[in-house]
């Protein structure tokens, strides 16, 4: 359908401003290692940074906490060593002129006429450094520093021979997690003539090793004139693992060969969805979103299958790939389902990887970083995450194991000796039907559920209702019944006496003794995590009839949604309304009464219109929200959260969204393009036709037709999608 190269349609600079926190450098799909510039921002590169401190080899895409990698940054310099080995002082200025950011390839020109090109294999970041003609070049390999606000607590570096450097870096895991160690091996394509190392005590020419705790540490190598290629492979297993990864993926290959392989891999991945549009910016936004989706989770196992597990022991993944880094509070809402639909084999390995965490750590994760649980965020995201993978068929052969792990998670609390915090509010939740609001409750990491008791209650209830679906189909009838009942626990926090903006009834935190938190306002921060009662009131999509009753009926629910989205203003000027009335700062979660497209708690809220019988309004809201995604560095509103916001956009463009976890059902809305084709790994195609689609107009669905049971649709079922289908969508244009 579309002969254009999807590689050329991606702009990796999208999201590199306004706290989108993406990185522009090179990666393989789901790659363990990267090659990308490090600036003064905690996520690595920010588009308006004036200086590049080096080219690091590990990043997270779109995350929100400070500790985000940038490990082993290498910076090329000429004209002698810098006066300071602090990369905040020796960083190089650069120009955006000629800068390129495409899947598998990044290029930039630094001052002193030095050009840097980046590419990657799955487990190695690769750079080609080109110095001015006739000029000797030096590379500064920094192991004592990383991204801004990423503390390095220990490091080592060793010049092994005239082409090879090895070492290790101990850094802190995401969101205040524990330290962990990354091993690396760097190999150059030609020998260097001079070398030395530095440590907190200063530079030592000719010295081969430097090791110790926190502080400036690294090595320099100087080459005869000419370009130099450096390949840096990573491993969390051991030093040999890094060397093995380097040999397996880069040995005997030139920079151009590695770049071509990386771009071919991306071409294969990105071709899984084709869209029909003549608008170049539209193409760039869509394919960059798909690219960001396909960056994670990250490959965790080395080339030989070894990986470091949650028991800190080395395990072996034979005939499958172990994946790690799971931002589950984010990804269970859209990213997980998109991968499950379009990347089935990887999703099977993802499911198996999460079960391996349970096997080795004793409990299921919430925010798993490398081989540890950070206990970041709240609620119970792993339950809908795994249940959806089961629903999509990706737990075959592991259903019983997964169910036992999930049942342990929803019914228990990890012991004090466990690193996992799990559902820390479960004791009160199971006894009284709610998680208490208690800011003094002890925590094992950054977050714990009673600190946000009201939102945790809603998250638990959604998880319970989701697991009830799996329990029923696996034949666990008694479990299913009690889980269904627990899925209604969100009702226990509904206070019909609370009023705000002319509406009565909101979820309200309860204290340990069952008393309502007082004073309380639905726009306040107390009891809710990264949101307010206004946003969290919609997190009951599994109990839509109960929610409609609480809201006072369908008409009252519609009126509240209208106020929440500023619906009448959307009809008049959608682009202006979403930016003036929805969007706040990326970390301004509270004192809000409207939809927050920057964050996850109400991502599904546009489809609440459809669930209450007003699907045309879902289309209006979704089309308006799409205007926030643009082809430029500020093209992602708020953190992309490891591809979650990008996955939301991809689903929104296709015209369907997985609003209710565990059901395998997608709620339809107006597609953005005249035609889109999703190529599934089973050889089937999902074809979405909307001949009248016009992105300049506000459009709603008039009718959806397909051969599936020959009926109009208010839901699209997973079985139909997997069997291959053509959805013909008739659109109606609203007059403003």
UniProtKB/TrEMBL annotation:
Family matches, as InterPro entries: 6-hairpin_glycosidase_sf (IPR008928), GH-type_carb-bd (IPR014718), GH92_a_mannosidase_put (IPR005887), GH92_N (IPR041371), Glyco_hydro_92 (IPR012939), PNGase (IPR050883)
Cross-referenced Gene3D superfamilies: 2.70.98.10, alpha-1,2-mannosidase (1.20.1050.60), alpha-1,2-mannosidases domains (1.20.1610.10), GH92 mannosidase domain (3.30.2080.10)
Gene Ontology MF terms in the entry: hydrolase activity
Domain named Glycosyl hydrolase family: residues: 242-732
Residue intervals of the Glycosyl hydrolase family 92 N-terminal domain: 10-235
Keyword Repeat carried by entry: no
Superkingdom in the source lineage: Bacteria
Keywords: Hydrolase
Name of the protein: GH92 family glycosyl hydrolase
Naturally occurring in which organism (per UniProt): Lentzea roselyniae
